[in-house]
């Protein structure tokens, strides 16, 4: 999982034994099966699978051991010195063949997992060998054929279970190897699949013998990846396993960064497999495994579109993603690009460089993010560039840069393997980062203590040692109480604080008034529980903090993160295995897009635009004069779009790539009004999103499987994804489109190059040219992606100089900081010092700041927003994925049973939620993890857009909106908005 922590892992000891008459060596503790495999002896195995605990129940791997009466299962028997093993003796082979024959005799005539994939590319492929996956494969290897007498005794075949939208259960092909049970219970720790009954009645069951579709299955698909025979299969892969090609990539959803392989047939992705990447080790979640077919949705944009003359931008209208003909007309690329860039250029030249802004995307590649921010800075002429990180972790990054000198995580998620205590706050990892949550659950099963601190008790609470269900908005009170306890009870790591921290006395003085006894009535956690958790955190060998947007999306989000930094510092829980600070990134490239400079106050690698040295470096590197003042952020840009004409910084034109602020911004009526008021809006996307509906020009772009590029995950891993498909119709790669816009924009000022480039600087590969355009010239395949990456690597040399494009092609994933080709990367940072001016953590005291808006008699409930497992961000991708839409087709508001009873409501009733800014009508569902007086609403549904109600009040430091707290009414009744037409309404069928 992570770096070896024990000496025997670094220097494994060997033992000598005899295998089929020859002396060989095995590693100490190694199984006979794995040792034999290393020495070229293939022993049959069916219940065994790399990565799963060996079970030894199928008995197909038995071998003879000298001096022992019975045959031994080689998968779960360790080699000992001097052991004599016969794996291919007559007796062993006879038993192996007998087991395989008996299992094969019970198989159905037609199987579900044909062994034909290996022959797909052969010119004259032989007939498929067997139809039962690994069982048929071993039968072929062992030359086993089922005797007719055994076939007559075939068991009664169980009925198929196709109740689940994604997976088919055909237990007539089940050999009861229990791999699915171990995958579900021990790897993913979902505890859905079990083994029930006895003897001839024994079988695999889901929950209490429920149909799979009615069970608590979360559709991670670990079971279908583990099943050897096809008894559990994705519905899209039943039967033939032949595909035209397999392409390695990275999951396009959350920030965990799981490595995947796309299986492509007839130019469509038919399934996704998990790869053994450092972040996931083969594991996936429902989105990663089954959320792939959005790329083939009929609503994909395939031609450039231009708004028809006289068609108003009514931001109150529901977009019609499949029926845009009334508002837009088709155009050629040349016409669309000329209009898109020409009007932006005119606005810049007429009103000045502050008149334009750009929103890039955390859903695209690093190269796209880098080139987009470079376009805004060198072509638009200002730093008015931002993306959705502003709405996620800006306050976390502000506190981290201030305190520890780096906005990235200190330790990778799976370092929880080495933690004694895992403190999860403001995050719902089982829904938002499901594979990351599996590492936490694995650690809990091994004895680590999980502390869940959250106003909502989410699924990770089932595995928690202590749950701190604090009152919403009281994070600082609770965290200061923990810090107070550590200091008051003498639990401070004195040496760490003395040698590696500054401003401790100010922190000590500040928390004197925050005793657990004083804070308990405020945060709602008993004082003794707060003290117990503080003691456990301080005395743990390793304690790690992981947090999400429940911490950051407040007006006091930066203060929340400051408290977390102080907590790990005073306890010395940073800079070592199983400790540290990890803000979990929400989207697949939030980390990378920020690293690449897609933020208004920072050049690439977090170099401030108003820092004279950094400013001079980039002016020389890009060869143009640059704005030295920070730009406006996402929310500020929306305000500036509605500013009076007299405002010299009024935003009049925008270029938005892959973002959907008409759904993701707070106070959506205001945000949509701002977008509709722009003189010129260019949107580059794959669907007619809510934002694209308000555009003047819409440019059809490439989905993630249609591009080659890198992304950087929450663990600081730069990872390479390869193009698996071509964009549909006339859609183009995003990287190509950005370059075309740049060539038509022209620089914002005369060409400028200093005579003396800064020491160590290398001239950018795509330099601006003359006054007619930014004459970028990125040569090479895939729109010059490798050349763009090389320029980005030079701009970020202090972080990724050792990660070349060639290295990524070899290794797929490299962790930064990485400063040389032979540097393996640093999964744990801050081991010796911090990248601050004095090398120390700067402790910043924080006091209680109330939310901008509090519940009152008129608006008595608190609205909490967030994501759900099956959908992601604004739903533009996941709601067009067949399986994901089938699992969660409708928006719901979660409330606990007590509040439902008090309002006379039942689950399924319709209510109207209303804030001071907007309202939605929505169905309610029961969720007793939601606290009394609160309502939880996911923000992925246009029909019930949670952000119509949220508050745009900003954290003064991170400038992040207060998404996680506003006051609402809950009124019985209402008329839900009709579905926006994003759903697929179909269930996948078997591939042809």
Automatic annotation (TrEMBL):
Residues 165-195, 209-237 form the 4Fe-4S ferredoxin-type domain. Its cofactor is [2Fe-2S] cluster. Gene3D superfamilies: 2.40.40.20, 3.10.20.740, 3.30.70.20, 3.40.50.740, ADC-like domains, Dimethylsulfoxide Reductase, domain 2. SUPFAM superfamilies: 2Fe-2S ferredoxin-like, 4Fe-4S ferredoxins, ADC-like, Formate dehydrogenase/DMSO reductase, domains 1-3. Keywords: 4Fe-4S, Iron, Iron-sulfur, Metal-binding, Oxidoreductase. PANTHER family: FORMATE DEHYDROGENASE H, RESPIRATORY NITRATE REDUCTASE. This is Formate dehydrogenase subunit alpha. It comes from Variovorax defluvii. The lineage of its organism: Bacteria, Pseudomonadati, Pseudomonadota, Betaproteobacteria, Burkholderiales.
